[in-house]
Amino acid sequence: MDKKKIEHFKTISKQYSDASIIMHEAIARKAGLTGTDHKYLGLILQHSSITAGEISKLTGLTTGAVTALIDRLEKKELLRREFTKEDRRKVIVIPNIDNSMKLLQPLFDELQQKTVKLISTFSEDELQVVERYFTEATAIMKETSDHLNQK
Asked: What is the pTM of this model?
């Protein structure tokens, strides 16, 4: 691939990334959350339960920052914490899916409708290419985050 095409792809990829951050910040503000809390809540919602330590490993946040995150989200009744009987220091986070969906779903409805409409314009082959890009780019970003968080 020639250098000009690569530079163009990098430019539109950055524009996509920037637009995503700005949109999620706007959604978070409407929901009464910070952008960071909104995105980390999304990670937590992917689990039926998750420990505070696992959140720390996933995000690279310090244990103190994870505790503060859990405090803020628990105060908004978007999750609850439980302590294990074996070790009361170990915190298990249980997302409140109902409250989270009541808060966030109305803010995502239009976006999801527009996204489905866009996706339906792609052929199967085009969707496979897009899926491959997102899957492999996500793996690269996760690898980069893990590397940076280890230092």
From this structure: 0.83
What are all long-range contacts of 64-71, with beta carbons under 8 Å and residues at least 24 apart? 67/91, 69/36, 69/37, 69/40
Q: State the Cα–Cα distance between residues 54 and 86, nearest whole angstrom.
A: 18
pLDDT tens digits for range 98-126: 999 999 999 999 999 999 999 999 999 99
HEC sequence for the chain: CCHHHHHHHHHHHHHHHHHHHHHHHHHHHHHCCCHHHHHHHHHHHCCCCEEHHHHHHHHCCCHHHHHHHHHHHHHCCCEEEEECCCCCCCEEEEECHHHHHHHHHHHHHHHHHHHHHHHCCCCHHHHHHHHHHHHHHHHHHHHHHHHHHCC
Would you put residue 77 in left (φ > 0), alpha (ψ -120 to 50) or beta?
Answer: left
Distance of CA 147 to the CA centre of its chain: 19
d(CA 52, CA 57): 9
